[in-house]
């Protein structure tokens, strides 16, 4: 009997507000340890939290973008556990009544799309950061992150393999970036994932799951899930039983190890947070948030296909980020004659060169205006496509515009009939045998003549015109 994999993901996304969830401290990343703290986020007794309403609005926006229900009244709860980086001894979160419930994300799979349920999104606060390494046996704690706003996005156990899990995470990552609700920088821990994994034989009820905690790289998440699936199948096939536990992925050894089992699991003793009133939104407020929703990746992709006539592939590449979509739109506006040419040049030439140079689009030395100037000259046949690639190479290193480079490098195409005819006559005179062969019916020799003429013109003759004039003159 074949094995089925079941995966459910819990994703912690840092909401990109200026100040923390329940106090006015800055959320700026990378400050000196413990410089962005106050009595509230240090957990001093008697300090009262005040909710950051902007974080709540951004959580509602995220809920609307996944077609979820927004609970007009939601509540905060205390999740109690002891850990040095948790100064209050509890985390403020939402347990029975979260702000968002019952949404979904459609993810791309081989044969189309698959709908993944999103059970809930709740608001909570981050803990501080413990540092143990290189400190001569002592641990240090940085509480700058304590109280930073998070939303936890919990999926249904709807994913059937690691690829689907990664597709879901990438879709979610792209969404929160488009919504501008999170920086979602995975290296800075602004988007991290717990993966719940179980296996079962076809037709059986859900198996016992394990949970891999706190992973912040797509590659590690995929490796961790695949490792865990194999580990569980092996246990069961050897007559054992999977133990419900939390596990840690070791990306150096490429294996997971047990962190804590169900028996050692925390009893969080959730209870209502007495220091915060229920969070209330009116339907009008929710509607106003919905009205401010930006164009989402799927809509943008479809618009690029219809408005610019792009292939689904090109539209997909160009809409990966808001920045690249905006860049393309400004290029297409500056070279409206040929949106397809804009897409080709941006994807194949510009992004390729940036990638080689290790640069982001935002750091591109060539602006969309300057690239459009070059594409205009390709469009009106001033230069060949091949010469244009050389011009782009030069543009990457200089501030000159296309016309200046074309002029100073003498790259202008020869489109003048007289000049092209003169070259053709010379080439024919130098190759009398081939002329005779062509006239005798060897049509394939046309390619030979095109090559010779292009060579004689040092690549500058307009190829379309060379073809046309060759056919005329070779006829005799
Ligand atoms: P918690 O981890 O807080 O105990 P939940 O019961 O809410 O919480 O489950 C968390 C995640 O585990 C959800 O994403 C859910 O889809 C997933 N999950 C639940 N049961 C299974 C299972 N048998 N196999 C895989 N994932 C599961
Ligand atoms: Mg969990
Ligand atoms: Zn504070």
Structural classification: alpha+beta
Question: Are any ligands bound, and if so which?
Answer: adenosine-5'-diphosphate, magnesium ion, zinc ion
Distance between the termini: 76 Å
Unreliable residue stretches: none
The level of helicity is: 25-40%
Largest sheet: 9 strands, mixed
Shape: elongated
Q: Rg, please?
A: 31 Å
Sheet with the most strands: spatial strand order: 2-6-7-10-1-11-12-13-14
β-strand percent reads 15-25%
- What is the helix tally? 15
Overall average pLDDT:
93
Tally of distinct domains: 3
Strand tally? 16
Description of the structure:
The chain has 476 residues and is α+β, with helices and mostly antiparallel strands. Helices cover 39% and strands 20% of the residues. It contains 15 helices and 16 strands. A nine-stranded mixed β-sheet has the order 2-6-7-10-1-11-12-13-14. Helix 9 runs antiparallel to helix 10. The longest helix has 20 residues, at 218-237. It is elongated. 34% of the residues are buried.
